[in-house]
Design a protein that fits this description.
With 728 residues, this protein is of the alpha+beta class. It folds into four domains: 37-148, 2-Layer Sandwich (Beta-Lactamase); 157-317, Alpha-Beta Plaits, CATH 3.30.70.270; 342-573, Alpha-Beta Barrel (TIM Barrel); 594-724, Thrombin, subunit H, CATH 2.40.10. 34% of the residues lie in helices and 27% in strands. An eight-stranded mixed beta barrel has the order 14-15-17-18-19-20-21-22. A six-stranded antiparallel β-sheet has the order 2-1-6-5-4-3. It has a six-stranded antiparallel β-barrel with strand order 23-24-25-29-28-27. The longest helix has 19 residues, at 319-337. The protein is globular.
Length: 728
C-alpha cells in the first residue's frame, strides 16, 4: 500500500498524513523499490533542473546522484523519433509546456550502452498556483523495446536473407508511388526469378537451397545502389524498387549486372552450383500508376523473360499481353505435340574449317504448330523442362536422330543435345544404348552435347554417369563453353571429346582491341593439349570465319555455311557420299543493324507521316515512304508506346532516307532496341488526357497555333499516307 501512496503523491495527489511508523515504513519501501531496479523516481525544479534522482539511474550513467543534481533533466536522454511518429515532441518542449506525460520512451544519453527508459511526470504547483517543478517515475524498458523491435523486424524482413519481405516491399512501393504521383516522379520495379534453383534444392537439399538464397541476397546488395530497396518475396523470387530511375539504358545495365553476378558459380558445402536469373522491369508512371498495376506489368515482363529462354531481362510493353497468351497456349499444346506428329528434327551442318567439308550434323527440334506456325526451341524447350516433358522429347530426339544418321553414308557424326534432367536420370545410359541398338548406328558416330548445368548434381552421380556413357563408346561434347561460369575442373573431371566455343566469344572477335581472339586461342590450345576437338558456334560472317581459321579452330557451325535443314535436304546433299559447302555471308559481321519491316511515324512540324522502317541500329534507321526530303531535315520518330526520338536525315535518295538519332537506342532485353526515355504520362495529362499508364498507339506532338496548321512539306510514296497532327 505504501508504494501506491507514493505513486499517488508523485502523480500530484494529496497523500494522507502518515501516522506513527507509516512515514518511516513508506520511505523504507521506497528505498527497497529503487534498489531493486524495477523502477526509479525523479523530481525537478521550475527550471527543469534535477532536484531528486534515484541512485540506480546515476549509477547507470557512471556517476553519482550528487553530480547530477542541478543538471537539466532532459540532458539524461536522447529523444529518438520513429519513422511512424515523425511529429513527436522533444522532452524539453514537453517539460516547458508543464503538461502531464506518461510512459514516454527515451534513450539514455550513453555512448557505449543502449538503455531505454519509460518515464512519466506530473507538474507540481504551490498553494498559490505557482509552478514549482515536476515529480515523476521511470522504469527500464530496454528488453521490452528490443523484443518489440525484433518482432517488428520479423514482420517486415525476411528471416532467411535479412532483406525486406513481401509485406514491407508492398507497403514501401504503395507509399512511394502515392508520393511520387503528386511530385510527378518516376519509380522502376524489377522482379527477379532464379533459373534452375529447383534443381539445386532437388539435388543438394533444402539447406543448400537456403544457403544459396543467402548468397544471392548478398550479391544483389553488392550491385544495387543504397538508394534502392531489395526484397525477397518468397521462394526464389526477389524484387527491387528503384526510385527516380526511368532511363531504360541504365535499367538494362543494372539488370544485366544482376543476371551476370547471380549467374557466377556458388560454393555450397563444398559443392559447386550454377544458377541463373531472369528479370522483368516496369516503370511508373509509364507502365502503371499504382502499385498493383506496376507489379502486374513487371510480372508480365518477367514471364516474358523466362519464356524467351531465361538468363535475360525484359521491359514491359503492351505486346507482352498477347505474347503471354501465346505462351500459355504453347504450354497447353506441347503435351500433345509429339503424339500428333508435330515435332520434327532439323540438322545444322558442322563443317571442317580448312576444307569446308561437312563432318557432322547437330539435331535441333522444330515444332510446327498447326495454328501458331513454327515455335522456336528457345521458347518450348524451357517450357518442356518446367512441365517435365523434356525427358520424353529428349528420348524421341535421340531415337529419331540415330535412325536418321544410320541412313547417311560415311562416318558422318550426329550430335544430340541432352538436358540436365535426362543426364541425371539413372536410366539414361540404357536409353542411349537402346537407341543405338535399334538403329544400328556405330556408337562413335553419336555425340551427346552437354551443358555445364549437369554439374549441379552430386559429384559421384555425375562421375558414374560419365563412366556409363563412355562405356557405350559415344562421344561427349561440352556445349556453350565460355558462357561466364566455365571451370577448368570440368575438363579435368569429365571425359569430353569436344569443346564448343560459345558464340558470345565470337561476336566482336574481329573488332580492333577485342580480347576475344586471345581467349579463343587459349581455349584451342587447351583443347589440343587435352586431345579434344573445338567447334565455333554461331559464325555468320566471312571475317569471323577467317579469324576462326587463323586461330586454328577445327570445326565451324553457323549461318555462314548453312541454317538447319530437313533430313530430305541432308540426304540429297550427301547423295555423292560427301558434302562440301562454300561459305556465303556478309563480309563483316554487323551486330547492331537489324532488318525490320514495320510502320513507324515521322513527325515534322505539325504533320505526321507513316513510313516503313527497313532496318534499325542503335544510332540510326533506314526508312521508306517520303519523297523530296533534303539531307539535314529533323524529324521526331514515333515507334509507338510513347517512344519518341529526334532523328536527322543524313542521306536521302528517292523515297528512302537514312536517319541518325540524336540519342542512341538501347537494348530492350529481347534482342531488339528501344528508346531510353518515353513521353511521360504526366505530359499527356497536362495536355488534357487522363493520367494513366501509357496507352497503346501514337503520340503526336502538340501542334498548330490557334487552330492553324501548315501545309505538308514532303510528298509521300504509295502506301504512306500523311495525317495532320491535332493538338492533344
Amino acid at each position: 500500500m505504501a508504494i501506491g501512496k507514493f505513486r499517488g503523491m508523485l502523480r500530484g495527489g494529496t497523500p494522507p498524513e502518515p501516522s506513527g511508523g507509516d512515514a518511516s515504513e513508506a520511505l523504507a519501501l521506497l528505498h527497497d523499490y529503487e534498489a531493486s531496479g524495477l523502477g526509479w523516481f525523479w523530481a525537478s525544479d521550475a527550471e527543469g533542473r534535477i532536484t531528486y534522482l534515484s541512485d540506480t539511474v546515476a549509477e547507470r550513467h557512471g556517476t553519482t546522484t550528487a553530480a547530477l543534481l542541478g543538471q537539466p533533466f532532459h540532458s539524461l536522454f536522447v529523444i529518438q523519433r520513429s519513422e511512424e511518429d515523425s511529429g513527436a515532441r522533444t522532452l524539453p518542449l514537453i517539460l516547458s509546456a508543464r503538461k502531464t506525460f506518461s510512459e514516454l520512451a527515451v534513450r539514455a544519453a550513453l555512448d557505449e550502452t543502449e538503455i531505454w527508459w519509460s518515464i512519466s511526470g506530473r507538474p507540481q504547483f504551490d498553494a498559490g498556483g505557482t509552478f514549482t517543478g515536476y515529480r515523476g517515475n521511470g522504469s527500464d524498458v530496454t528488453e521490452a523495446l528490443r523484443s518489440q523491435k525484433d518482432a517488428s523486424r520479423m514482420a517486415m524482413y525476411d528471416s532467411l536473407t535479412g532483406l525486406a519481405n513481401r509485406h514491407r516491399m508492398s507497403k514501401r512501393l504503395e507509399v512511394t508511388l502515392t508520393a511520387y504521383k503528386a511530385a510527378k516522379r518516376s519509380c522502376a520495379v524489377m522482379m527477379i526469378d532464379l533459373d534452375r534453383f529447383k534443381q539445386v534444392n532437388d539435388t543438394l537439399g533444402h539447406p543448400a537451397g537456403d544457403e544459396l538464397l543467402k548468397q544471392v541476397a548478398q550479391r544483389l546488395e553488392r550491385v544495387i545502389e543504397k538508394t534502392c530497396e531489395i526484397g525477397r518475396l518468397g521462394g526464389d523470387e526477389f524484387q527491387v524498387m528503384l526510385p527516380d530511375i526511368d532511363d531504360r539504358g541504365r535499367l538494362g545495365e543494372i539488370a544485366a549486372k544482376i543476371i551476370a553476378i547471380v549467374s557466377q558459380p556458388y560454393s555450397i558445402d563444398g559443392s559447386r552450383c550454377v544458377i541463373g536469373a531472369s528479370v522483368g522491369i516496369a516503370i511508373a508512371p509509364y507502365d502503371g500508376i499504382d502499385s498493383d498495376e506496376l507489379i502486374r506489368s513487371a510480372d508480365l515482363a518477367l514471364y516474358a523473360a523466362k519464356g524467351g529462354g531465361r538468363g535475360q531481362f525484359r521491359f514491359y510493353s503492351r505486346d507482352l499481353h498477347s505474347e503471354a497468351e501465346r505462351r500459355r497456349r504453347i504450354e497447353e499444346d506441347l503435351r500433345d505435340a509429339l503424339a500428333q506428329d508435330q515435332i520434327r528434327l532439323a540438322y545444322q551442318p558442322i563443317v571442317e574449317s580448312t576444307s569446308n567439308k561437312v563432318i557432322g550434323l547437330e539435331a535441333v527440334m522444330r515444332w510446327l504448330h498447326p495454328e501458331l506456325g513454327n515455335v522456336s526451341p528457345a521458347i518450348f524447350i524451357p517450357i518442356a523442362e518446367e512441365t517435365n516433358l523434356i525427358g520424353s522429347l529428349g528420348e524421341w530426339a535421340l531415337r529419331q536422330a540415330t535412325a536418321d544418321a544410320v541412313q547417311l553414308p560415311g562416318s558422318l557424326r550426329i550430335a544430340v543435345n541432352v538436358s540436365p534432367a535426362q543426364f541425371s536420370n539413372a536410366a539414361f545410359p540404357s536409353t542411349v544404348a537402346q537407341a543405338l541398338a535399334n538403329s544400328g548406328l556405330p556408337p562413335e558416330r553419336l555425340e551427346l552435347e552437354l551443358t555445364e548445368s549437369i554439374f549441379l548434381a552430386d559429384d559421384d552421380a555425375t562421375d558414374r554417369m560419365f563412366a556409363a556413357l563412355k562405356a557405350l563408346r559415344v562421344r561427349l561434347a561440352l556445349d556453350d563453353f565460355g558462357t561466364g561460369y566455365s571451370s577448368l575442373a570440368y575438363l579435368q573431371r569429365a571425359p569430353f571429346d569436344k569443346i564448343k566455343i560459345d558464340q558470345g566469344f565470337i561476336r566482336g572477335v574481329t573488332e580492333p582491341g577485342s580480347r576475344n581472339n586471345a581467349i579463343i586461342r587459349a581455349i584451342v590450345a587447351l583443347a589440343e593439349g587435352l586431345g579434344m576437338d573445338t567447334t565455333a558456334e554461331g559464325i555468320e560472317a566471312l571475317d569471323e570465319l577467317e579469324m576462326m581459321r587463323q586461330l586454328k579452330v577445327g570445326q565451324i557451325q553457323g549461318f555462314v555455311y548453312a541454317q538447319p535443314v530437313g533430313f530430305d535436304e541432308v540426304t540429297e546433299a550427301m547423295a555423292s557420299g560427301s558434302w562440301v559447302i562454300e561459305p556465303n555471308g556478309p563480309s563483316k559481321y554487323r551486330s547492331e543493324r537489324k532488318t525490320l519491316l514495320r510502320k513507324v511515324g515521322l513527325i515534322h512540324e505539325d504533320h505526321r507521316y507513316d513510313v516503313m522502317l527497313r532496318n534499325l541500329s542503335r544510332s540510326g534507321a533506314l526508312v521508306e515512304g517520303l519523297v523530296d526530303v533534303p539531307a539535314g531535315t529533323e524529324f521526331v520518330m514515333d515507334f509507338g508506346e510513347g517512344q519518341l526520338t529526334v532523328a536527322r536525315v543524313r542521306r536521302s535518295s528517292g523515297s528512302v532516307q537514312g536517319l541518325q538519332f540524336e540519342t542512341p537506342l538501347v537494348d530492350d532485353g529481347a534482342g531488339g532496341l528501344c528508346t531510353r526515355h518515353r513521353i511521360s504520362p504526366y505530359m499527356l495529362a497536362a495536355a488534357g488526357m487522363p493520367l494513366a499508364a501509357l496507352p497503346a498507339g501514337e503520340y503526336p506532338l502538340v501542334g498548330g497555333q490557334n487552330g492553324n496548321f501548315s501545309l505538308p512539306k514532303f510528298g509521300t510514296a504509295p502506301e504512306a499516307p500523311k495525317r495532320s497532327i491535332r493538338a492533344a
